[in-house]
């Protein structure tokens, strides 16, 4: 009996203690809200249901009940509808204050909802374009190949001890770097071999059926060159794999990184953005730049120079120019949350392509030129 009584007493004390904790937390929460936000005057309310009874028991429709309450309590009032606290605005003057004068209070939250991760979308877009150019239609192993190339670039980025001290190259075998790269390269070669074999089968099928509607991609062109006897040198399967990988690196990762930084710089310089959009939307085609980025001037070498120049330069330039022009032509861009251009974070992340440390989030507004032309007429 005494054990049962002690157990009940302990349970009661524990319940009371928990209840007190809930009350203290509720009191602190309301106190914090009161100190941060000044709420409009509220009506007398009941526990749990708040002011719902004043809307339901009046015999009128809810909007009519709100009108009657506004006549009695003023154009700005606060109602508690269950657990939701609502502010009722019922005059033009008060509505103007909320929707125009104090619109920034809500604007920050809404712009965040409308902002997009441009960095993520840029890399997805360039990967898709590059894959279609290199492999054509969706083929087996394409997504896995893209993932493997990214992993290889991550492993090859940065400083490795064997690169700085060739005499200590055995460290690469100890820390697993050499093994990891070898496995990734073997997987990449295996996937590329499957893709090349599929293209060979498709070429045989196309030649048998005389289907001229089939569009050629990079692998198809290289396979045709491999069969051609007009070349002074032999194109091997290794060459095809190397060129395909290089085109992907130039048109995928490097192009997306360039686009990411280009948009960042344009957002930091609104006047330059306006001029660029004006030139794209009403082409003026100025070619007055004194610096060449194709490797002839040595002030700026994004693709290398001389014999070390990357073979993907033409494809990479086409990707960057086309996609940047499309972004500037079809959309208007702004920084979210009232961030000023000079406040945009431009921190770099070290790596093979020197990406932004933090993804670029922007507010985007689609532009419909055909609608504008119709309205102007």
TrEMBL record:
The chain crosses the membrane at residues 6-27. Pfam families: p450. Keywords: Heme, Iron, Membrane, Metal-binding, Oxidoreductase, Transmembrane, Transmembrane helix. GO terms for molecular function: heme binding; iron ion binding; monooxygenase activity; oxidoreductase activity, acting on paired donors, with incorporation or reduction of molecular oxygen. PANTHER family: CYTOCHROME P450 71D11-LIKE (PTHR47955:SF8), CYTOCHROME P450 FAMILY 71 PROTEIN (PTHR47955). Belongs to the cytochrome P450 family. This is Cytochrome P450.
């Amino acid at each position: 009996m005494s054990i049962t009584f002690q157990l009940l007493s302990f349970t009661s004390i524990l319940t009371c203690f928990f209840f007190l904790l809930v009350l203290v937390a509720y009191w602190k929460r309301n106190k914090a809200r009161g100190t941060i936000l000044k709420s409009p005057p509220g009506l007398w309310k009941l526990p749990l249901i708040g002011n719902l009874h004043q809307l339901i028991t009046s015999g009128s429709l809810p909007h009519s009940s709100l009108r009657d309450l506004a006549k009695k309590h003023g154009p700005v009032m606060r109602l508690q509808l269950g657990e939701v606290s609502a502010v009722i605005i019922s005059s033009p003057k008060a509505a103007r204050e909320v929707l125009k004068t104090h619109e920034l209070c809500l604007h920050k939250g809404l712009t965040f909802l409308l902002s997009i991760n441009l960095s993520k979308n840029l890399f997805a877009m360039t990967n898709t374009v590059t894959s279609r150019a290199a492999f054509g239609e969706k083929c087996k192993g394409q997504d896995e190949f893209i993932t493997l190339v990214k992993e290889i670039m991550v492993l090859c980025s940065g400083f490795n001890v064997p690169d700085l001290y060739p005499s200590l190259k055995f460290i690469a075998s100890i820390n697993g770097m050499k093994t990891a790269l070898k496995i990734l390269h073997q997987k990449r070669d295996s996937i590329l071999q499957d893709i090349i074999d599929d293209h060979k089968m498709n070429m045989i099928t196309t030649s048998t059926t005389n289907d001229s509607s089939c569009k050629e991609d990079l692998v198809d062109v290289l396979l045709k060159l491999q069969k051609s006897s007009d070349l002074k040198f032999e194109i091997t399967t290794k060459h095809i794999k190397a060129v395909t990988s290089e085109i992907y690196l130039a048109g995928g990762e490097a192009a997306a990184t360039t686009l990411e930084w280009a948009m960042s710089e344009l957002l930091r310089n609104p006047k330059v953005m306006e001029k660029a959009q004006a030139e794209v939307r009403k082409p003026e085609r100025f070619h007055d730049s004194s610096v060449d980025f194709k490797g002839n001037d040595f002030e700026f070498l994004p693709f290398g120079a001389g014999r070390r120049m990357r073979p993907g330069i033409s494809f990479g330039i086409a990707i960057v120019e086309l996609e940047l022009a499309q972004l500037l032509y079809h959309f208007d861009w702004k920084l979210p949350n009232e961030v000023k251009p000079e406040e945009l974070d431009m921190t770099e992340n070290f790596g093979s392509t020197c990406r932004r440390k933090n993804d670029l989030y922007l507010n985007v507004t689609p532009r419909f030129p055909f609608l504008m032309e119709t309205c102007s007429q």
